[in-house]
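step: validate -> pass
step: tokenize input -> pass
step: predict -> running
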Amino acid sequence: MRSGAPAFGTPENTRANIIAGQLARRYGLPCRRSNSNASNAVDLQAAYEAAMATWGAVMGGGNLIDHAAGWLEGGLTASCEKLVLHGEILQNMLEFLKPFDTSEAELGFDAIAAVPTGGHFFGAAHTMERYETAFYHPMLSDWTNYGAWEAAGAKDALTRATAIWQQALRDYEEPPLDAAIREELEAYVARRKEEIGSDEP
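step: predict -> pass
step: emit ->
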């Protein structure tokens, strides 16, 4: 009411995501949730609002989460960098939601017992077998220390996100499509443009 602009990623929006999800479960209905944000730029606000809304959508038990990746200004604009940022948020959430492995081998009690007081686990067989795969590998985040980050060009998340989507476009290869299906699709698009009066190419 104060601005006329849609506000997503706010505490109220997050709460609404959770409440709507609870109501949907109570009545046995499917629930679509959104994890969008109200930021006008790919900045700190876009990140924390998108993360906040994602938590609300997930904690609300949404069956389908949409209207998020790439969206800014409550869905009125979009950005390739925001698409990458949200991809990272969603991947973090998926990793967080993975069931925790409590097997004996994974808990490593034998490895704990084998390291003497004052020792370390860096060279333990249990560590060496798992250190490359034990933790989430980010798409966007840079977890190097400050010195290494600075030496590599001191690129912030926005700069890294730009590089990621630009590389994705360079690497893209159009999947094969049957010629008959392509012709049918092109004819459909041409027909619909004529029906709605669009003269755009």
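step: describe -> Residues 1-98 form one domain.
step: cleanup -> pass
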